[in-house]
Amino acid sequence: MGLLDIVPAGVVTGDNLRKLMNYAREHKFAIPAINCTSTSTINAALEAARDLKSPIIIQFSNGGSAYFAGKGLSNKNQEASIIGAVAGAQYVRAVAKAYGIPVVVHSDHCAKKLLPWFDGMIAADEAYFKANGEPLFSSHMLDLSEESKEENIEICLQYLKRMAPMGCALEMEIGITGGEEDGVNNEDVDNASLYTQPEDIWEIYKAFSEITDLFSIAAAFGNVHGVYAPGNVRLHPELLAKHQAYVHEQLKSENPLPVFFVFHGGSGSTEQEIATAVENGVIKMNVDTDTQWAYWIGLRNYYEAKKDYLQTQVGNPEGEGKPNKKFYDPRVFVRESEKTMIARVQQACKDLGNVERL
Ligand SMILES: [Zn+2]
Q1: Among 15, 108, 190, 200, which one carries the catalytic annotation?
Q2: Measured between alpha carbons, how far is 3 from 358 in angstroms, rounded to an integer?
Q3: What global pTM score does this model have?
């Protein structure tokens, strides 16, 4: 039985999202969450997944959302980030079904200082829910890992209570993921705090599951955001097995993998590390840095190959009067970026076993 036997094509929320998450955990694969900043990058992610017959997650960061709305807009009080995230989600909704695959539309890391952005998106979900019986977004991510564990859980619960009745899922983060992303710099934290403890996972699981099962946890197991030269931090995805076993033991559940885990900071991980993570209940892995690079490389290669056609509007090696329009049309050079991004998204899908799942 494939995914399209149990969920429809297009954006999935609520029950359909639950089915998709369970299906991934049961069949031991994870869905890449591609950070998108434009319709071009969204289309590339959708096309990549469609051609592999698999679902995909489109996610918007705070900065990516503001960029989506336009760099010319003020982001005072998170206005541009709210408008951009909502516009991005609406765009995904407008095209997703045409690609014939299940799509999760998600917002990425939201730290405490960015909560007005989160509030704006939840308000948009509530308005959309009123009109359509489902939220605009499939899910959102709250990253309060810089706060105390108590405050982290408490704020998450407040939002979860608003999101659960709409069937909107929450992803939370516990422990510290190293590296730098959207202005949060954790490059200097000590190693001990880079590994979440099983007791913490249980505390979260217990509190959240009293409200809903639509939540996932980004636990720290030595992950680093971005790509860095190999350093002191070591990735230990096998720790996720301990978390699952601990929660399983507390719950006495039938399912040996009760927790939905998310893999942040996966750039540069080995195939083995990714496989271990997926084996232990990771159903989503964030992909940002590597697809940014891929998008750039497509353009760079194009420029290098067509350099002599890109210096003036008219005149190239084929003749002084030859027009260059077909070389500098953005549909041509942006498409080259899309092609290399598509290839990189497909590589992520293959690494995670997200292939032929429809
Ligand atoms: Zn994170």
Answers
A1: 108
A2: 5
A3: 0.94
